[in-house]
């Protein structure tokens, strides 16, 4: 009972904010909300809760990742104008 009350109180005080997200992500979130009969705001809240759960306070990166240096992979196996068609085979 106390846990349920604490969760209700945590969700009762909310901050209204604005975010900018790519159009495709917005459309997918709206689709998810509709399919699960929930609001867009609920989808966003649940997504944020999930990412926060995976990144608890005090967690630090052990090492910094850097993009590897490019290297020559040789001559392409197909012409660039054929890539799309070949990717659908």
Main attributes of the structure:
mainly alpha
SSE topology sketch:
Blueprint: H1 2-12, H2 23-35, H3 40-54, H4 83-87
Helix pairs in contact: 2-3
Report the span from N to C terminus. 56 Å
Q: Quaternary arrangement of the chains shown? A: single chain
Q: Quick one: biggest sheet?
A: none
Low-confidence stretches: none
The value of Rg in angstroms is 22 Å
Structural class: mainly alpha
Question: Which word captures the global form?
Answer: flat
Give the integer mean of the pLDDT values: 85
Order of helices and strands: HHHH
Q: Please give the share of residues in helix.
A: 40-55%
Strand-residue proportion: under 5%
Q: How many β-strand stretches?
A: 0
Total of helices:
4
Give structural notes.
By secondary structure, the chain is mostly helical. The chain has a domain at 19-57. 49% of the residues lie in helices and 0% in strands. The chain contains 4 helices and no strands. The chain has helices at residues 2-12, 23-35, 40-54, 83-87. Helix 2 (23-35) packs across helix 3 (40-54). The radius of gyration is 22 Å and the shape is flat.
Task: Write a brief caption for the model.
By secondary structure, this protein is mostly helical. 49% of the residues lie in helices and 0% in strands.
């Amino acid at each position: 009972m106390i846990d349920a009350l604490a969760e209700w109180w945590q969700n009762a005080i909310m901050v209204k904010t604005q975010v900018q997200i790519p159009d495709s992500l917005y459309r997918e979130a709206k689709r998810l909300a509709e399919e699960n009969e929930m609001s867009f705001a609920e989808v966003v809240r649940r997504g944020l809760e999930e990412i926060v759960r995976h990144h608890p306070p005090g967690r630090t990166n052990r090492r910094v990742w850097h993009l590897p240096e490019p290297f020559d992979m040789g001559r392409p196996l197909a012409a660039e104008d054929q890539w799309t068609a070949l990717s659908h085979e």
